[in-house]
Amino acid sequence: MSRLETIIGLEIHAQMNTKTKMFCGCDNDAFGKAPNTTICPICTGHPGTLPVPNAEAIQKAILASLALQCTIREECHFDRKHYFYPDLPYGFQISQYDFPLAEKGTLSFEIHDSSGNIEREGTCGITRLHMENDAGKLTHRGSSTLCDYNRAGTPLMEIVTEPDLRSSEEAVAFAQELRRILVAVNTSEADMFKGMMRFDASISLRKKGTDKLNPRSEIKNLNSFKSLEKAVLYEEKRLTKLWEDTGGPLKGNITVGWLDDEEKTKVLRDKEGAADYRYFPEPDIPPLQCRKQDIEKMKKTLPSLPRAMKKHYTSLHLKEKQAQQLIDQPKLRSIFDAVYEKTNDAKRAASFVLTQLLGFLNAAEKSIDDGPNVAALLELIEQIDNGTISANAGKEVLGVMVQTGKSALALIEEKGLRQISDDRVLEDLVRKAIESNPQAVASYKNGKEQALGVVVGWVMKESKGQANPAQVNQLLRGALAT
């Protein structure tokens, strides 16, 4: 129905990359570890235990808030949010409600076309950013459910947006830019494969031209950009049909789950309100004080944010798509930056890193983490620049480095790729090339510049590609000028 407008707001839970959990000293990295091995009486909610806020988590949450242009409250406090799940040991969650850490931010994002070029830009308001501890994890096996409390107590940032998004495309673009920012300021790894970033999407419909917000459907725990896109599209179509059938919006707020395998939503329950959670200030944690001078100091430590980085890379004449690749993959970006710093040639660095290196990694079905490190790659470039090997031989060496993990120097010696730069040896090859290619030599002397390539090619073939092509070219021109 073209007369209807889709209204979307997001709640994003991002796990902070601290060493320990939110309110205890347990290891915060539980991924891949045996169930219930990174727990203690505090994070499992034993009676009589007292939570102690993690200073590192608070600092990271403040940095994320500043990167999102939020206002940091000078005083905030934790609250108890009461609800029961088997994987929430306390029987309540320590969160923040009426006095969150930060409020009233904004985030700008870009919509790209299939070629990676900017199609349009959008902006979404940030209502609040607050801290809380995560629940554990449930695994369902037939009629039984297993509880793993390793994740219980993990420090989370919950970022709540204004209802400013109007399509699944905008929701995904916003979420992607948010992830880039959190990674850039080193507050979260935001690895969705490991469950470090999850989305709840609230959707409602209204007639175009009106301002009223109607009851909404909240889709819970979406763990990938693809799931976010598909779930929002599905629920948008479902609510549109419901409007057509009933002549109006939902009668009340509801919570739905997304079934990935079936690619559809399932109604779970009516949406809870603040009264259902019975919020009240956490009595075991005193209010937090955030001094203005401390906030200003932290603001000065913020690194370049993704949009600024993108502007920098496009100013080097990289394509939009290439710049986006570097922003989305921090390790790839660090490699590119190191190669660019050594060569002072962005085009060459892009060819080496984004074309050759990634091409060999993809062919070998390896990730950037499995490939040569920065030092090994710079050593290879050094061998090309100092004339030890040719650029073509360098490409061959890079491919074998990716496959074997061997160093550039070891491969150069092993494969006999060291470039011939001795003038006496090259002069002898040039003399023989002139004698062996009289027709090409005559054509060159008659003004056909391209004929010189035939003679150069003969030298390269005779030297098995090891002759320095620049020197060969120079010596040939000198010999044929007489």
Comma- or semicolon-separated keywords:
40% helix; 9-stranded mixed sheet; 21% strand; 3-stranded antiparallel sheet; Arc Repressor Mutant, subunit A; alpha+beta; 482 residues
Question: What this model shows, in words?
Answer:
With 482 residues, this protein is of the alpha+beta class. It has 3 domains: 294 residues, no CATH class; 86 residues, no CATH class; 58 residues, Arc Repressor Mutant, subunit A (Orthogonal Bundle), CATH 1.10.10. Helix 13 packs across helix 15. The longest helix is centred in the middle third of the chain and has 22 residues. The chain is elongated, with a radius of gyration of 30 Å. The model has no long low-confidence stretch (mean pLDDT 91).
What is the approximate shape?
Answer: elongated
Gyration radius (Cα, Å) is: 30 Å
Number of domains: 3
Can you list the strand order of the major beta sheet? 2-6-7-10-1-11-12-13-14
Structural class: alpha+beta
Mean pLDDT: 91
Low-confidence spans: pLDDT under 50, at least 5 residues? none
Number of helices: 16
Strand tally: 16
End-to-end Cα distance: 82 Å
Strand coverage percent: 15-25%
Please outline the major beta sheet: 9 strands, mixed
Helix content, binned percent: 40-55%
Topology:
Blueprint: E1 4-15, H1 55-67, E2 71-72, E3 75-76, E4 79-82, E5 92-95, E6 102-112, E7 118-133, E8 137-141, E9 144-148, E10 155-161, H2 168-184, E11 197-207, E12 217-222, H3 225-246, E13 254-259, E14 264-270, H4 274-277, E15 280-281, E16 288-289, H5 292-299, H6 306-315, H7 320-328, H8 330-343, H9 346-363, H10 374-385, H11 391-404, H12 408-414, H13 423-436, H14 438-445, H15 452-462, H16 469-480
Parallel strand pairs: 12-13
Antiparallel strand pairs: 1-10, 1-11, 2-6, 3-16, 4-5, 4-15, 6-7, 7-10, 8-9, 11-12, 13-14
Helix pairs in contact: 2-3, 6-7, 7-8, 8-9, 8-10, 9-11, 10-11, 13-15, 13-16, 15-16
